Inverse folding.
């Protein structure tokens, strides 16, 4: 697996590429759900698997990025605070959008 050194940690180029492809497949699957049927996009049955694959790769990347800090100076509680703050920044828009939807 080819990797590049970015500062102190290796950066896995192939994993970024695979995560990007998985993210595009997920976006494509969501587009099929929200676009009118007249667009006739072909079915993407793998989009659910792409979500799992994306999260699996992301878990590896996060674990690899925080490995040394968790072993030496970063407590589990501080790690969880960092992750929750980061997720909240991204998720608050999705959360408020979901609350505003009028679903029956």
């Amino acid at each position: 697996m080819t990797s590049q050194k970015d500062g102190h940690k290796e950066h896995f180029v192939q994993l970024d590429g695979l995560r990007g492809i998985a993210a595009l497949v997920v976006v494509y699957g969501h587009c099929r759900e929200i676009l009118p049927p007249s667009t006739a996009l072909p079915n993407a049955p793998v989009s659910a698997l792409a979500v799992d694959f994306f999260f699996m790769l992301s878990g590896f990347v996060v674990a690899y990025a925080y490995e040394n800090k968790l072993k030496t100076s970063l407590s589990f509680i501080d790690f969880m605070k960092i992750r929750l703050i980061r997720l909240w920044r991204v998720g608050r828009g999705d959360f408020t959008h979901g609350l505003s939807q009028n679903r029956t």
